[in-house]
Each structure stands twice: as structure tokens, then as C-alpha cells.
Amino acid sequence: MIDNKKIIIVLPAYNAAKTLKKTYQEIPFDIVDEIILVDDYSTDDTFIVAQELNIKHIIKHEINSGYGANQKSCYNKSLELNGDIIVMLHPDYQYTPKLIHSMCYLIANDLYHVVLGSRILGMGALKGGMPYYKYFANRCLTLFQNILMKQKLSEYHSGYRAFSSEVLNTINFNINSDDFVFDNQMLAQICYNNYEIAEITCPTKYFEDASSINFKRSCKYGLGVLKTSIEYFLDKNLNIKSSIFRK
Known about the structure:
It comes from Wocania arenilitoris. The chain has about 250 residues and is α/β, with parallel strands linked by helices. About 40% of the residues lie in helices and about 15% in strands. It has a single domain, classed as Spore Coat Polysaccharide Biosynthesis Protein SpsA, Chain A (Alpha-Beta Complex). The longest helix has 24 residues.
């Protein structure tokens, strides 16, 4: 705990058997109280590795439900366990667990309700091996979103995030997509509710065992991002209501 605030790490897992142990071993258990792993019907030994690590809270989906559905299970379980600060950490070791301290203290000290690990601040993305087409798409989508949503984030697409329980109890994340655009819809909901978002520089690693969506799925995600931003703009400025911004 930090200042009597319960810290929970959620691990949305899919075929993470090769990287889960390394990720888990770097989690700072001096402040972390609980670990939740949700296995989205992996075809490898992710579930077995999680059991070998004695992770207390393991949820196994009976079908492959999608990245967004995985996070829904993660966050609903974290609220059930009365977490005060919830950190989403990908178990593919693309993001370093060594930033958990910094992210949690910003929330525990009541400075922010949301903290993102940004790959774009500094040289984390390209240095870590992000493909150039993904970097270019990231920058274009982020510019578009910042204009329509009147924000100043360096990126909306990082999978490394920390939230206060207040945020998760305020936004209706369960109504969001079960696919990858879930992440973006969630940030739009957070901005819609006027929560200020902090960002810290995050190194990242792109390697064979790290999860990554292909070009086709990336295009689908990009279109979903554009749709979410337009819905946000229309709801905020023209009172054309979107369901994801309703509690």
C-alpha cells in the first residue's frame, strides 16, 4: 500500500507464457497488494505459468473474448477486491514494471486520477523498435484526437495505464468494445468526465514474443479511434449523444 491505498496490478494475458514470469518478477511487491491475471483463452501455457507463480486471482475465459473483454474482467475484479489504485500492465514484457512506483505515487498523492506510460515522450517508441508505420499512425491519430477532444496528450495508444478506483467507478467501461479500441474509448470517457491525465516517459520493447496486432487489425483500430473522437466531439459540442459517454 501507499498511504493506506490498496494497489492492484491487472495482467490482461493472451499467449504470454514466455514472458509472464519475467514481467511478474519485476513487479514491485513492496507496494503492490494484489495481482489479477485474466487469461483470454490462450493457446499456450499462460494459465499454467500463472499457477506456478502462485498468482492468487486468475480468471480464465472459456472463449477468446478479445482484448477489451479481457480488461473488463480485470477491472471488474479489481473493484470487487476494493482496489484504490489499479495498474494495467501487459504481461508480454513490452512495458517495464519498474515504472509502477512512479505511476502509483502520482495517484496516491492525489495529484492525478490517471497516469499513462507514454512511448512517445522521449525516444521510447522508435528506440524500442516500434515499426515506422505504427509510429506515423500513432502521431496522426493523436493529433486528430487532441484537436477534436481539446487535449494535449503525447499519445492515446499506450497499454500501460494506472487509474484511481474513482475513475473506474465513474466511467461505464463495460459498455465499450471487446476489441482493441476499448483502450481508446476508455480514455475518451475519462476526458469526457474531466479527469486530468498525467504522462510519464516509458521505454518499450518490440520483440518476437511481445504482442502486436497486424496491419489489418491496426487499420480497424485506427478507424475505431477516429469514430470515438468524432462521437466525443459531437456529444460535447453539438449534444449528439453517444452511448459510451452515458453512465
